[in-house]
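Listing 4. Sequential folding, example run.
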Amino acid sequence: MVHQVPLTIITKIKPDSMEQLKRSLELMSKDVGSNAILPFTRFTQVHFARFVVLEESRDLNNQVIQPSLAFSSEIDAPLERYFHDLVDIAGDGLDEIYSHCVGYPSPDDRTRQNRLAYLQAHQVKVQAFYVNTINRTVPQIHQEAKLRDQIEVFADQQQAKWAWIGWNSLKVRQAIPTYLKGERSLSWSLAPVPSPSLVWRLGETIHLIGGLLLILMLGLAFLPFSPIYVAILRRKETQDAQHDRLRLSSKERDELAIREDHVVQNQFSAVGLIKPGFFRITTVRVLLWLVNFTARHIFNHGNLAGVPLLNLDGVDTIHFARWIVIDEGRRVLFMSNYDGSLESYMNDFINKVAWGLNAVFSNGVGYPKTRWLVLDGAKDEQAFKAFLRQRQMVTQVWYTAYPQLTAVNLSNNAALRAGLSKPLNPSETDAWLRRL
């Protein structure tokens, strides 16, 4: 069983190469799957990938932050294989992109090993990574989508012939595996998805227990100082400046909008400054560690921040998301892949997990005012949406391996396959058939 991992590579862009780089990226975006530079369809591990140009900016001390190029991918492990595929399949393409970046080997020095070393040297750590459903691979997603299509075709054919007249749901359900057994290309579907290996499960259990013990020990150590932390937090919250809601120009809005709503999924890339001081950067890093821990062990089956026992709905439209502290702790880069429109995406967050947004994003400059870290903030809908739009960046290149499948589609397809290889009672059978 294969789990999913993130790759993020960030490189500084040469001062005189920005326009040439953007032209190359624009060329890629015209045929993102099969372009001649990085033909993503040839990388069978890749769920999503993107290139984003981080334009020149300034920090809170008015110091210049040089422009850089961020390349990210969400892939099926192992990461090492992906690195090697990049240089073996797209070596010349890497040259075309990264020749515009600082430190890339000159034409006379470019070798397979040098390209690989450059990519690995510029990999940055991801502070928090969310996966909708762990251990669901790209090949599995494609297989299960094909399976669903074939079962639907078979069911339509049987209904057209009136073959199932008078049949109850149990008999209909029994007919489907019988059909699949006779189709050599689909017989794999009658076997259950392989379970994670014992070694992987043991490693995850050790990580979970170790993390919980660490949280407990640090929590107990922090408890005597918590009143001081809360007092400092509240003081800073009351002193935070409420920034004006700047409006995007029509050109900026158009450049963002033209890259959205082409398929059932969308991408979002944003970067923002962290409020000054040790207090804020420490809070950000601790909270992102907690986000990463809970995403890895709790919110890993299609429901970000949902708590069924408390009847709290989470967000089920996000495929992957990541948070990265960049520029020596001055900014946070956020990237996600989600279903639906940006408006519905923002509404989901506001209505379901505003407290979580507040906890992390309230440490960013310009975020709507919060109380006690988790209250208010995103509940000011217009201010929150303006905050996100102002920090959103153009994603020059974005690839998805399954552009017509939502996160709910993936879950339904997986459940449909799972129902073929295990006994179901009458009510479970009815529920299973409703997935068709």
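-- end of first protein; second protein begins --
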Amino acid sequence: MALGYLNLPWTSQVLAYNDEETPEKLSGKKMLPIAVVDGQSQNESLEIITLIDKKNSLSNEVWGTTDATLDELGSWVHNLGMPYWVWSPEFDTASRDYFIAKKSIKRGPFPLLAKRRSEFEKPIQMVLQRLETQITPFWKSPKLTIRDIGLAAHVWGLFAVPEFRFSQTWHDYLMRVKAECRFDYHRDFWEKP
């Protein structure tokens, strides 16, 4: 989203989740995303944005207290979304099995996560409802900031959860972020032959 917002040219390579060798070669650890800019590797999202944002269009914004909100939301979104995300075309059988085994250690067996859907969805809806008055047109701002990229990145994954319902306010917000960032989720991946 940051690359699109900053209108920077880029190419991506989608790695299989069970590919540990490539991330470790590039950055010294198994962590995605990884950006390689002018031969320099970075895989912390905020630091990637700082690295690419030469004019401080996004990175001059204060991240601040949004950390707590995103941490709160992120935990519930991951618990709810993971059992559905693994069925996207990004995963083949081997990488899906690896992801499920690795994430089940922390979150529990995926079939049980799916059965606990209402337990995860309720707090997500509460946080989304609490934030609704703060996202018009962007999160506590008349223009898109780095906070919107963090928030939208968390919430965007809920589109993969069957029958998850966004309010009109949230849907409109996500579409504004999408337009500002020229964001088309993994379009480069889906269009490959």
